[in-house]
What we know:
alpha/beta
Amino acid sequence: MAAQRELHDFFFKEAKRKGYRSRAAYKLSEIDDKRDVLHKGDFVLDLGAAPGSWLQIISERIGEHGKVIGVDLKAIDDGLPNNVVTIQEDVNLLTPQNLTTVLGTRFREFDVILSDMAPSTTGTRTIDHHGSVILCHAALDLSATLLKPHGNLVMKVLEGEAYPELLKRCANCFDSVKGFKPKASRAISTEMFLVCLNRNEDMPKPLEPAPAPPTSGW
Ligand SMILES: C[S@@+](CC[C@H](N)C(=O)[O-])C[C@H]1O[C@@H](n2cnc3c(N)ncnc32)[C@H](O)[C@@H]1O
């Protein structure tokens, strides 16, 4: 436990020292180092992007010829690099049409979609788990319309009973789907990341509907 707290403090201090907006930056860095998700020149969609530390990492890794669009319910403070655009919006309202309007350019599909979205936490593990799984299904549904064939999707999920169904739905759409727990995630947290690589060319648009969450008991 003490070792975990030390590790947490280490990432917190490192983020401050390097000017990252949160220690979550180190989660994405490690995922990308190990799973090779982002590439120079990529066009990336970051769902649940506030306060913006993933945007900072993505911006570095895609370079000046890449572009990243960060979307969040909350406003994201200015001061991000030139290859970052932010949108204050509910991701459930994103469509190719409204992205075209907001960005002022013809819509093109993304190379990578990332989601660090989290529901407002209640502290009740089952409720938070189902809230997180609903956000993951929303990110997966968006991949059917917004992600290129052969593109990659990474999303945060709080593990629990609905995780196997989510995994199955992802496995129907991508060549490789694996869970990943970065060192910067607290060991006691149920948080982990689903890394889905190489979107199938024949992913249906729209996807079969996600399984309904339980209506009681959470
Ligand atoms: C853990 S934070 C993301 C941290 C971010 N990756 C970073 O590195 O700074 C989760 C975010 O998900 C956002 N979120 C949750 N549901 C959302 C939704 N439906 N649409 C857009 N953003 C959402 C929250 O507002 C919150 O800012």
